[in-house]
Amino acid sequence: MYGSEAWTITNKFKKKLDAIEMWFLRQMLRIPWTAKKTNERVLQEAQSKRSLLDKIRKRQATFFGHIMRQEKLENLIITGMMTGRRCRCKQRERLTDGMAKWLGMGSVVAMLQKTKMHQEWRRLIANAMEQGT
Questions:
Q1: Model-level pTM?
Q2: 78 contacts 109 by C-beta, under 8 angstroms
Q3: Which of 17, 63, 73, 126 lies at a 20 to 30 A Cα distance from 54?
Q4: Which Gene Ontology MF annotations are present (predicted)?
């Protein structure tokens, strides 16, 4: 989980993360791979309420809000205010795009405005965690 605040979570990465989390749970519960247990049953045995992905998303959101409230270099980099040109190839998904999608915000600009209000940002994160999106 070290450095997970800066990861961009794509669908491919999400599937890999879910698979490795299930593998970890099966190892901790000592369930052999030959046992015919579904993932739902393993999750019930583990009684895990929040997945690894949820924990990473929460860490990202709190770190993102922290960075956006400061007026430093990190803020400029994340908002894309740096000088220079981007490559002409297909653009990658940015951290801000994934964060806005997870929080259910309409646009990145609206999300950036919400980060300035600390209590409202924390409430927005809590609502996203409850919904489990």
A1: 0.68
A2: no
A3: 73
A4: endonuclease activity
